[in-house]
What does this fold into?
Amino acid sequence: MISRHYLDAPFAWFGGMLRRGSERRRYAASPYAWLFQPYLGNELVALACFAHHGVMSVAAVTLRQHQVLTSRAWVAALREDARGGSDAAERRHQLLYSVEATKPLNIESLRSLVEFIGNRPIIGWQLDQRLAPLEQALRDHLGFGLPNARVDVTRLHQRHLRRLHPQAEQEAELARALDCWQVPSKPPQQALEDATASALLYLRLQRNEVDTVS
It folds into this structure.
């Protein structure tokens, strides 16, 4: 079971439960039925997504309790048309987000991603905004968006910051939030680094929560 300290954003998790409940019946007889079942393990997945000019760079990395398992990551640039489109946009993504593998944005690549994520809860920085292009692609190709329970680390950071410094300016940049909580990390511009940084920040804020309660 997921330990209690993961349940820091009950409304986000409750929203995930509602999505699963409504869609579970719709996909009960499909190969994706298991994605809508409640998760009973102790892992999460940090997601990052950047979309520009027909190319979408996605990174998903596994968290297990207090560890970020970068060796267990799903990273790829998804291109809307692998045979056409802009080669310059693809090269830009490879340069900006350090994504070497390019896959066509189709049912097979999206199925690979959702099977990696599974029904584990997801976290990330500015999660709804970042995942909007991915959610749309999933609906277009698979018929549904990610049903997972989720926590937006941006809101978690701002909540903790308001508690300690009510007058502080609410930052919306991941790099500055990492500095605020003294989380050592590589610059979170690249896709995998962004997902990893949001995971490390999440773990740091969880430790802060435990320290505050104790």
Observations:
- Helices lie at 10-26, 87-97, 107-117, 127-141, 153-164, 174-180, 191-213.
- The longest strand covers residues 67-79.
